Amino acid sequence: MKEKKISVSSNTALSILMLVLVAVLLLFSVFLVRVKLLENTQNLGMALAKSYAVEEEMHLDSFRQIIILAAQYVDEIDSDAGNGSEVQSWLQDYFSKLTVMLGENMVDPYAVIDGEIVAANPWDGDAAYDYRSTDWYQDALAAGGEVVFSDVYQDAITGEPVFTISKALARSGDVLAMDVYIHSQGLHNTTQTLPGNSSYYLCDTNGTLLYTVTRWQTDEKTLQMYADYLMEGIRDGSLFAYDTSITDMEGVERGVYYSTMSNGWTVIMTIPIRTILMGDRNMVVNLLAGVAVLLFAVLTAMVIRDLQQNKRIKKAGNTIRILSDSFYAVYRVNFREGTYEAIKMSRDLESQMPRTGGYDFLLATVKQVVESGTYQEFELSFSLESIRQRVSEHIADYGGDYRRRFGEIYKWVNIRTLYDEKLAPDEVILCFRDVDIEKRQQLQHTIILQEALEAAKKSTKAKSDFFSSMSHDMRTPLNAIIGFSQLAQNSQGDCCKMWDYMQKIEFSGKQLLALINDILELSKMEAGKNALNNKRFNLKQYVEESAGIFRTQAEHQGKHFSVELDIHNEEVVGDEFKIGQILNNLLSNSLKYSNPGADIRLEVRQFDFQRHSKYQIVVEDTGIGMSKSFLEHLFDPYARETCFTSAVTVGTGLGMPIVKSLVQQMSGEISVESTLGKGSKFTVTLPLEAVSGEEDAQEKKEEQSSPFQLAGRKILLAEDNELNMEIATEILSMNDVEVLQAVNGAEAVRIFQAAAPYSIDAILMDMQMPEMDGCQAARAIRALDKPDAATVPIIAVTANAFAEDIAKTTEAGMNGHISKPIDVSLLYQALEKCMKHE
Asked: What is its main location (predicted)?
C-alpha cells in the first residue's frame, strides 16, 4: 500500500510537473508569438509608412512636371511678344484643366510677368504684393531654371497652410509659381487604405504638422503637441525598437511606424497594440493553457510543424536580410554546380530565360543588355571562376556600377555578389539595382566640385593679383609722403617750395586714406557687417554739397562739370552716409578716368512709386570708357582693367564692387553703359521714403543766428598718442582755444570732475586708450554728480569710422563722432553742432 502511494505520488508529481512544463511552454510560446507579431508588424508598418512617403513624393513630382510643362507654354507666350493679359488668360484655362484633373481647392497658379503679378485667380492687393522679398521668388531666380519647393507657410488670403512651387522663366525676372494646399484631400488619397483604428500624420522638416487622419475630434494645437511628442521619439531613436509603444490621448497603447521623404518631410503611422495582438482573440491563447494536458500530443505535433516552418521562414528571412526591396533582379547562384535560381527577375528578361537553369545561360542573356564596351570586363568579373576565387578569399561583398539598356535607353545599374558562408556555403546572391539617379547626381556633384576647385583657383589668383596691385598703389602715395617730407626738411628757407611740398604730402595722404577706406569697406561687406543706418535728411542739399567738392576738382583738371536736379520731395529717409559713398565713387571715377576737356554730368531725378519714391542718380562722362570684355567683370572685387591714359590713376579697383553692394543693400538697381574711347554712363535707382512737410521754423531761425566762434572756449582733449595730441592741440590753439590735455580716459574723468561746473565747453574723446577707453570714460562722466555732467558735449575722435562704431559712441552718451585722420573742417562742424545745442 505504501509502495502504491509512492507510485501514485510519483505519477501525480510527474503529471503536475508535466502540467507545469506545458504551462511554462505555453506561456513561453505566447511570449514568442507576441514578439513575432510585433516584429512582423514593425516591418509591415515601416514598409507601409515608406509606401505612403513614396506616394507623397510622387504627388510632389507630378506637381514638378506640371509646372515645368506650364513654364514652357508661358515662355512661348513671352517669346511671341505676349503680354500679361495673354498669360493670365492661358493660366485661367490651364487652372480649369488642373481643377478637372486634380480636384477643387488643390492648386493656385500665378506668375510674375514684367514685374507684375498675373494670377489665374486674381486676389485683392496683388498689385501691392511684395513678391521680390518672398523665398519662392528669390529661390527660383537663384536656381537657374530648376524647379524649387518652398517651406510650408500660412496663405495670407485663405489662412490655409500651403507650399509654393516656382520656376524662373526664360525672360529675366519672370517667374511661374503655383501654391499647393497641403490640406487638400486629393493630395493624400493613399490614407484611405489605412488599417483600422490607425492614425496618419505628415510633418515637415521642422516637425510642423501638415496633414493628419485620426479619429480624434480635437484642436490643431493639441494635435501639434502630440506630433511634437512623436517627432522627438523618432529623432532620438526611442521609437525604433519593435516592442516600443506610446500611449495616445485616450490612454490607448500604440505602435509607431514612420518614414522620412527625400525633402525632409516625415510620414508617421500609429496602430493600436491591441489590434496588432489580435485584441480579444487572445482569449484563445488563454484557453489553450487550460486544455494543455489534453492537447499535449497535438501541441507536440504543432511544435514539430512550427519548427519545420520556422526553418523555411528562417531560410527565406536570411535571403530577405541579405537583399533589399530596391533590387530589380535577384538570383541565387550555386557556384559549385554552376546553376542559378531566380528569386526576382527583371521584367525585360522574364520572357527570355527560365527561373532556373545554367549560370552560363544567365550570363549570355545578360550580355544582350550590357553596354558593349563593358561586357568583357563584366563577364570576366562575374564568371564562375571569379566567383569561386572570391569565395576562397572570403570576399563577402563584391560589385560595381555599369550601364545597362532598358528598352531604348541606357541607365546606370549596380551589380553585387553577396556571400555568407554560414547561411549558404555553396551559394552567392547575385543582385541588380537601378542607381541611375544616384550615379548621375554623383557625376554632377563631381563636376560641381571640379568647377568649385577651378573657381577657387581663379579667386586665389585674382586675390594674389589684387594684393600685388594694392601693395603698389599704397606704396605710391606713401613714397610721395616720405619723399616730400624729406624735401620739405631740406628747403626750410624757400617758403614756396615748402608750401608746394606740403600740398603734395596732403594730396598723397588723402589718396592713401581713400585706398585704406575702400579695402576696409569691402572687407566689412564680405563679412556681412555693413548695416543700414536710415534717418531723415535733405537729399537735394546733400547732393549739392557732395557735388561741390568735385566741381572744384574738375575746374583744377580742366574738365566741365554740370549738375541737374529734379527733386520735388527733398526730405527723404535713408542712409545718408552710404548714398554719399555711391556719389563719391561714381564721380571720382569719372574724374579719374577722363582727360582734360571732358564733360561730366550728374543728374538726380525723382519718380513717384506708391509710398516709396524712386530716386535715380545718373553719372555720365565723356572719358576713356571701358571695353565690352571688362564690363562683364566691372563689379568683381579683385578685377581692374588695364588702361592707358595721359594721367596716372591710383586705386584699389574696389570702388564699383562697393557701389553695387551698397545699391543692393538699399534694394536698388545699378546699370552701366560704356564705350571704349567715348565715355561711360552709370544709372543708380534707389527706393527712398519721401517725407512731406516744411522744415521746422525754429530750426530755420537757429540757422540764421549769429556765426559760431571757437575763440575763448575751453576744451578737454583725451588722447594717448603724443603725435595726435600735438596735432589736435595745435589745431585748436590756432583758434584761440584753451586745451586741457588728458593722456587716458581715467585722467579725463579726473580733470573734468575737478573743473568748475560749466567751465569746460566740450570734450574730444579718443576711443582706444589705456586704463579706461573712450566709451567707458564717457559713461563715467555722464554718471558724475555735477550739474554739467549730463549736458557737456562729448565728441568721439577715432579711427573706427563704421556705423556700428558710431552706434557704440551714441550708446555711451556721446554727442558726435569724427574719424581719424582729423579733417579740420569736419572738426569745426562737429564742435559747432554740439556746442550750439548745449
From this structure: membrane
Other Cβ atoms closer than 10 A to 258 = 23
What 3 state SS string does 591-611 have?
Answer: HHCCCCCCEEEEEEEEECCCC
Residues 6+ away with beta carbon under 8 Å from 772? 744, 745, 746, 749, 780
Q: Are 387 and 396 in contact (CB under 8 A)?
A: no
Q: What is the mean pLDDT of the chain?
A: 78
Give the residue from 603, 596, 737, 582 showing the smallest Cα distance to 668. 582
Q: H-type helices in 607-696, by residue range?
A: 628-631, 655-665
Q: In angstroms, rounded to a whole number, what is the distance separating the alpha carbons of residues 566 and 603?
A: 8
The count of other CB atoms within 10 Å of the CB of residue 260 is: 15
Displacement of CA 394 from its chain's centroid (Å): 47
pLDDT digits (tens, 9 = 90+) for 378-397: 888 888 998 999 999 889 89
Q: In this structure, what is the dihedral angle of CA atoms 433, 434, 437, 443, given to the nearest 10 degrees? A: 70
Strands 762-766 and 199-203, bridge-based pairing? unpaired
Compute the average pLDDT of residues 278-293. 51
Rounded distance, CA 256 to CA 244, Å? 8
Q: In which region does residue 329 sit, left (phi positive, over 0), alpha (psi from -120 to 50) or beta (all else)?
A: beta
Question: Which element (helix H / strand E) includes 835?
Answer: helix 824-836
In DSSP terms, which residues pair with 602 in a beta bridge? 563, 619
Q: Which three cell numbers stand for residue 145?
A: 531654371
Residue with cell 518614414: 259
C-alpha cell at 86: 495673354
Cell of 385: 571562376
Beta bridge partners of 404: 370, 411
Q: How large is the average pLDDT for residues 338-353?
A: 86
pLDDT tens-digit series, residues 648-705: 444 545 678 878 888 888 888 999 998 888 899 999 999 888 887 554 444 444 444 4
**Contact call for residues 350 and 365 (beta carbons, < 8 A):** no
Of the candidates 272, 154, 198, the residue with the CA atom closest to the CA atom of residue 49:
198
Pairing type for strands 571-574 and 535-538 reads: antiparallel
**Amino acid letter at 354?**
P
Is the CB of residue 142 less than 8 Å from the CB of residue 132? no
For 35-44, 83-92, 741-750, which range has the lowest pLDDT when averaged over its residues?
Answer: 35-44
The pLDDT of residue 779: 93
The pLDDT assigned to 563 comes to 92
Instruction: Summarize the chain as % helix, strand, coil (round to 5).
Output: 50, 20, 30
Q: Which three cell numbers stand for residue 316?
A: 527565406
Burial of 58 (0-12, 13-18, 19+ CB in 10 A): exposed
| 73 — pLDDT class (breaks 50, 70, 90) | confident
**C-alpha triplet 673, 675, 679: angle, nearest 5°:** 80
Closest C-alpha among 170, 173, 145 to residue 64: 145
CA atoms within 13 Å, Cβ hemisphere of 340? 24
Distance (Å) of CA 162 to CA 152, 179, 191, 295, 670: 5, 6, 19, 62, 35
Q: 837 with 788: CB under 8 angstroms?
A: no
Q: Are 26 and 298 in contact (CB under 8 A)?
A: no
Compute the distance between CA of residue 651 and CA of residue 409 in angstroms, rounded to an integer.
58
Tell me if 640 sits within 8 A of 705, measured CB to CB.
Answer: no
Q: Of 79-88, 215-224, 306-315, 641-650, give the lowest mean pLDDT range.
A: 641-650
Ramachandran region, residue 13 (left: φ > 0; alpha: ψ -120 to 50; beta: rest): alpha
3-state secondary structure 458-485: HHHHHHHHHHHHHHHHHHHHHHHHHHHH
User: Rounded distance, CA 117 to CA 88, Å?
Assistant: 9
- Go through the domains of the chain in sequence order and give each one's CATH number: 17-181 (3.30.450.20), 190-280 (3.30.450), 325-434 (3.30.450), 442-513 (1.10.287.130), 531-690 (3.30.565.10), 708-836 (3.40.50.2300)
